[in-house]
Amino acid sequence: MANITQPKSLELYLKILLQAYSRMLTARAMANTYEQNRQICRYVHSTSRGHEAIQLATAFQLSGHDYACLYYRDEAMLLGLGFTPYELMLQLLAKADDPFSGGRIYYGHPSVRREGLPIIPHQSSATGMQAIPATGMSHAIRFLEAQGIIPLERQSVVLCSLGDGAVTEGEVSEALQMAVLKQLPIIYLVQDNDWGISAKGSEMRAMDAYEFAQGFKGLERMRIDGSDFVHSFTGMKRAFNYARQERKPILVHAKCPLLGHHTSGVRKEWYRGESIELALKNDPIPKLQAQLVEAGETIAQLEEIEQEILQLVAEAFSRAVIAPEPDPTTIYQHDFAPTPIVQESGTRHPIGAAKVTMVDAALHAIEEILKDYPEALFYGQDVGKQLGGVFREAALLAAKYGDERVFNTPIQEAYIIGSTAGMAAVGAKPIVEIQFADYMWPGLNQLVEELSKSCYLTQGKFPVQCLIRVPIGAYGGGGPYHSGSIESALLTIRGIKVVYPSNAADMKGLMKAAFLDPNPVVFLEHKGLYWSKLPGTEEAKSYEPAADYIVPLGQPCQVVNADLDKKMQGESLVVITYGMGIYWAREAAKGFKGQIEIIDLRTLYPLNEAFLEEAIQRHGKALLLTEEPLLNSFIESLAGRLSQKCFRYLDAPILTLGSENVPAVPLNICLESKMLPNADKVAKAINHLLHY
Ligand SMILES: Cc1ncc(C[n+]2csc(CCOP(=O)(O)OP(=O)(O)O)c2C)c(N)n1
Ligand SMILES: [Mg+2]
Fold this sequence. Notes:
Layout: H1 14-36, H2 52-59, E1 67-69, H3 75-81, H4 85-92, H5 131-146, E2 158-163, H6 170-182, E3 186-192, E4 195-196, E5 199-200, H7 201-204, H8 209-213, E6 220-225, H9 229-246, E7 250-255, H10 275-280, H11 284-294, H12 299-322, E8 355-356, H13 358-372, E9 376-380, H14 397-401, E10 406-408, H15 413-426, E11 429-433, H16 441-452, H17 454-457, E12 466-472, H18 487-491, E13 497-499, H19 504-516, E14 520-526, E15 542-543, E16 557-560, H20 564-568, E17 573-577, H21 581-589, E18 596-600, E19 603-605, H22 609-619, E20 622-629, H23 634-646, E21 655-659, H24 669-675, H25 679-690
Parallel strand pairs: 1-2, 2-3, 3-7, 6-7, 9-10, 9-11, 11-12, 12-14, 13-14, 17-18, 17-20, 20-21
Antiparallel strand pairs: 4-5, 8-15, 13-19, 16-18
Bound molecules: thiamine diphosphate and magnesium ion.
Residues 163-165, 193, 195-196 line the site of magnesium ion.
Coiled coil: 285-315
Keywords: Coiled coil, Oxidoreductase, Thiamine pyrophosphate
Organism: Adhaeribacter radiodurans
């Protein structure tokens, strides 16, 4: 798109100029107020000083059918959308009535569902990471338009706002790749102040964002003078029109000066030197003032506006300072959105049902979901038409439901996971797959920063409904990068749920519950159980439950019971385990007839621990078994908690058994079996415990 070099200010209404002017002055007055009251404004904050023109010009293009991901400097953008100084100051001071988070997250971190305003989902502080959820929103718009769920006439678009420093983050490239690949209606606005805290542009990159965008074939691009409101407004109007009408992506590179501190904590006098004087020459306020005078406003009229604003900002600040603090007892609220699935229901074993493998149970569950929910879609590497998943776990789904709903993604784990935050915000119901648990790590950043904290930090406005399928586990020489267990790492992330079924019926019932859960659910599927090919795993196959069958998350179950007389005689114990552990325990239990109860956790978080305590109480002895290396694992921490709670009933310490503590599952099968637990090792542990 051609650069705009000749803005025609006369074409713009004076009204818009005046609106922009009063909001610019408001932003400046707010920044000055915060500066003058540093003791009161104790929480770290950034202001938009210098960036006001481009931000207001952008805000004025957004409608109530649009979506936006902003960044921490977009204060003037929020004023442009109509938020009052008082509302913004409530967040500055982390007050109870902060409309975005109730005092949980910093200034300039909006989350918005308000009639007439664009939807703005959870905003993390991680630079550049919003590019993926933003692109996910655009992807969802495209998908829901194709499904006839979002009307095309709305011409909804997504705005993704970024700093220039943020653009060099790798995840921004994943987002841009997807935007051009799928030709998504999104505007990437890069506010280039040539700083990334104290690093100059020349230290951070060999090209600016406009030049960088050239590498993304099909990405339209535009340069704007972001310090000039008229230029910015004309340019952004064209950029939005392009995305709305062509339904394609565009990147706008807006140069603007940074006139304030990087943040209240990193102050300009420490590193800016003379550059601040130079930057002041591009202050958007005097530029707009001159344009207003040229358009017929008098200096006296402009001064009157300024006086009114100063008074308004001062009043807002006084009110915000005395607004109530949040009630500390509310910290527990909104860790998760409530799930509708709280009871097992439907038919687990329908008459005449055939036995099904775990992999097919998963496939059928997804198929039934896709049939019932037109807003559901399934994507990941190789799940599309040609292959249907490397385990054939998605076989024929794309053929049946179309490439819009079931498709291959590029090799972009961050996008696969992070896009679900955007998808969910727009109303799609994403099911995604990470090909192997060992490759979850590139997606973990998005899982932590964008998904897991979203419900909590937006006070329940943006729970991320997504189901993340992850084949996991070791068997038969899969080697160090196709065998890893990762549940302990996942379980340190608050705000997600983790499921780990061990048989086909649970696979299907839990998958339905996971899909319907309004929160992020990571669904771990053991590759060694998929087809029950391994000796001793025959029981992983089960009669296929009916389509209505559902198992709530968080409920462990008993899979083997011990005899009453053995319990009475104190000759029994309970093995608490999950996944492949169930089959090692079943095999081992054969040597201890009637003495062993086995409990399958099924869900690792949430987890009904009272159910486990009761089981331990029945026996006075418990073995906790996992496939993970034991040291600092989930199972060790569970054992610690259960030991404290069951101390009075225990006849022996709670024992734990897992893999050897080595950094990877070695390739050679002799080495692999030395590392992993097996039935013999479990039998030894049981024997030891029974004779304790
Ligand atoms: C992932 C991540 N790394 C580091 C930081 C610390 N940090 C905060 S702002 C910032 C500089 C960002 O510069 P830019 O994107 O140009 O935005 P600007 O503040 O200049 O508007 C850095 C490094 C962060 N917030 N997130
Ligand atoms: Mg910058």
